Amino acid sequence: MKAMILAAGKGTRIRPITFTIPKPLIPILQKPVMEFLVELLRQHGFDQIMVNVSHLADEIENYFRDGQRFGVQIGYSFEGRIIEGKLVGEAIGSAGGMKRIQDFSPFFDDTFVVLCGDALIDLDLTAVVKWHKAKGAIATIVMKTVSKEEVSAYGVVVTDETGRIKAFQEKPKVEEALSTDINTGIYIFEPEVFNYIPSGVEYDIGSQLFPKLVEMNAPFYGVAMDFQWVDIGKVPDYWQAIRSVLLGEVKNVDIPGHEVAPGVYAGLNVAVNWDKVDITGPVYIGAMTRIEDGAKIIGPTMIGPNCWVCNGATVDNSIIFEYSRLGPGVRLVDKLVFGRYCVDKTGAVIDVQAAALDWLITDARQDLPAQPPQERQAIAELLGHDGG
Fold it and tell me: What pTM was computed for the model?
């Protein structure tokens, strides 16, 4: 069976991570989120997968290649062009990406699934396809029911008593929401849906195709399913997803490494004197990371591979990406460190290099920077450093 993963977006809401990592490759404890989707598709018999790519396309293609090592076949549709010798992504919308593949050669010749490449899910795709076919639908949205207080963060789907879709509301106010069913970015389509998508133009599934299906009174349905859906579309979402995985709240995601103490997991060859550090799980520490004596780590926390946590540093409820060096006495609480960027759990970003903070946080592979004492106290307080 055939499927498509939407992977062409720039991931602007989850910057700075997507400056160098395409959103489908963002790691969930060292494993790309799209790999979980490929595994789910394979488990339900979807072994022919098209992926539209644009931003950092070569990163995605070089990781998944033809899909052979994942037990599937994967093909790619690049959206963009070469300008002055460089690949420049020019995404053409989710529906436009589907149409481009179909116009190239009619690939989708039977019921097919479309997934957004930025969520962890454990959905029973087989059951959804069965429901879709029983309805005689041309398109089906998989919905999830949320609390009334949460609706303003999502696209709301309004259906009648048979499940037929009547309207949409984009992030409505709580008091104006007509439903508590939200669009999860998981779709089932019949090939006839391409009759509603124009060729050669940018076209979006949610904002253009779906309203058109409602307007044309097409057999278009929504089904609310009880399944786990962990979105990583924004930095706060990603931060919460890693926390949930470490707390054991996400199905089908195991913490890698070996458990060296209750709730403390370590990769290969971690350099640490366990008797001289204070670690409270759940914590994951990646391979070849050095934790100096006197460091304090409080979970849920992930420290990636090849990091260096200096003496007296505290890492509390934070996510530290690979090759990060945290200087002596640094105190990080509720932070995400990615390269030269430090992000709080609301998504606010500090560029540590531009702010002359790279004596506190730097790349573990480079020579240690000078530490300007005249700036130490004021800047240290910005990051929660004790200034000592």
Answer: 0.85
